[in-house]
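Changelog-linked ticket: adenosine-5'-diphosphate example.
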Amino acid sequence: MDRPVNILVIEDSQADFLLLERLLRQHGTSANCVRVEKIEELAEAVRANNWDIVLSDYSLPRLNFSESLKLIRRELPDVPVILVSGSVGEEMAVELLKLGVSDFVLKDNLIRLLPSIRRALGEANERRARRHSEALYRSLFENMLNSVVHCRMIFRDGLPVDMEYISVNPAFEAVTGIKENVVGRRISEVIPGYCQDNPESLEMFGRVALTGEPTRWEHYLTSLDRWFTFSIYSPAHGEVVIVTENITSRKKAEQEREDYSRRLELLLETAGEGIFGVNTEGRITFINQAAIRLLGLPKAELIGRNSHEVFHSHRSDEVDYPWNDCPLCKTLSDGISRSGEETYYKADGSGFPIEFTSTAIIEGDVTSGAVMLFRDITERRKIEDDLRQAQKLEGIGQLAGGIAHDFNNVLGAVIGFSGLLQMKIDRSGPLANYVDEIIAAGRRGVAMTQQILAFSRKQVLDMRAVNLNEIVRNLEKMLRRLVREDISIQYDLADENMVVHADASQIDQILINLATNARDAMPGGGRLGIATKTFVMDSEYIKTHGYGSPGKYAVITVWDTGSGMDNKTRLRIFEPFFTTKECGKGTGLGLAVVHGIVKQHNGYINVYSETGRGTVFKIYLPLTEHVVDRADSQPDELIRGGTETILIAEDDDSLRSLSITVLSQYGYTVIDAADGEEAVLKFAENRDKIKLVILDGIMPQKNGKEAYAEIQQLCPDMKAIFISGYTEEIFPLEGIHDKTAVFMHKPVTSGNLLRKVREVLDG
Ligand code: ADP
Ligand code: MG
């Protein structure tokens, strides 16, 4: 024994007590011995309660043994009592053992005392330990939240068929919801159908009961609509103890979490935006389908890799993109969400613009990763670029158109007066040649202003239903003359009748301009192709090209095997005055004109080209259901004059004086006005004489239409010729009865004016 044994000795003889002490010492037992001989002393000592063993004499003069034993048993239930006395009868000895005395030793055989003490102490310890663990298990059994069921398995032909409850703890009711007393009953009675519905459970319980091997199992009990974990072991052969935990709420929460993450996953995978997440090192931890598709790399090559490396290091231009320029990296390092635009690079090195939002994932106070949401904005950029380009063209067009209009009037006067000069001078003299040159130069100028008006969409169009194939065929000879002999022309015209609403001369212009460019692009010879076909523009086409409106179109394709062009050139070719040709060779107007005409015809133009690979232009013009409308050819009549009185209103001084000169020379009486208001006034004064009014479309005070409306109030049948410079002047004239009024386009030659005047007057 490690510590001294505390021994309470109930003995009236001091001598015997000393003897006992000596004996213990002699045998190496260290002990604290205390002697009592009265009941009060005993009661006092018992209260100290630190005794390991009690040695008691049987007959003491001042103490009744059975009384003291009762006291000891009550107060010190675990302390063993050994009787040390003179002889006690056998009967008595049995009686004492029953009362709880551990052993007795005769005073004359004291040598037996030591082993007896040792054994009693050992037994006491064991008893104490057992009592302790029993109490522990009892309290566990009683207080546990899990149900504990002790059952005996019932077998038939070696198979488990039922089980009988031996005991259940209080939690059984709460866990299973079974309120009735089940002890002694069979489970088949308590839960009807249990044995049929749960053969696997029964089999498992049976196996544990027979093999003694414990097991654990999660199971859903349909009859109770609850989830349970069963921990099963066997306390004795044929019996099982089942500890059951109700895990229904945990299971439901698990299921809800699972459902939630499944829904979340579905959302991620079906989202149109690319979404991926990175950890604190910037490595990709998850990535959705849209992102994989946009980046063009298999998922396995993306997961676990550094996103900055993947999306920025493939760039073909090999420009260094430092780590701290990458918005996602920035978000990772400072925890701040950002959004904006940048470029991502695919594995093949091609970049595409994206719009993104990078968001930090913050747990507690630390960044534990980031999520990137992005979408490809190539299409949007393209539409923006197209819009910008269109606005630019529009702006330049308006500017140039305004100048061209005034310039046209100037040229009109130059050509007109030169024409008069031509009629007056001696055709064989030296001056005739000069005048011819002035007129020729003037006409070239007019041609140029016409082109400028064309791309600014301000020239007057003669719109009719025309067959595109016919236009191309009529132009064949002219194109053959235009391009050199080392260029072959290939025609590939659709069989169908391709009728569009167009100004045929403008379509000629388109073809001539495109063919001229093709020729210039093939200085060493090559092939030029012109093809026509029909095409149905659908929403798919409109979506991918970023322009168009649905319907049936005629497509004219003009292609060549020439030098082609790079991207930078291709983006600018429709700009007026943009040319790559050397000074004096190119005007930069050709394609601007083509573009203007196409737009004016509600069409679209497209170009595909690569350096060294030739060029393809495609023009889409809306098809019409109308039949071809033939313009009546005008016979070359002789010019005749007249004697009628004509009112002419024109705000441009030189043009007005030109018209006055021409008309008076041919016998007419001319009354002139410088604006619309004057025209009305002068008409009122001379209304009986005036047979015809010639009005400029746009004039100060009152425009041509307004003036004519007032004139018609005075004289409803008054005949009129409108002379217009460009489209916008035509619009205010719409709705005018065309029996009495006709239109002429500026510049008007003297011959044409005289012919038209006669035609209207003779009407
Ligand atoms: P210009 O012919 O006076 O230069 P355009 O407007 O007709 O003006 O053409 C503009 C530019 O477009 C040309 O200078 C040329 O660089 C380019 N281009 C046009 N058509 C072609 C083509 N078929 N092949 C190669 N480049 C072309
Ligand atoms: Mg050109």
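Closing comment: Example verified and attached. The longest strand covers residues 351-363. The chain has six domains: 5-139, 144-251, 271-376, 382-456, 464-622, 645-761.
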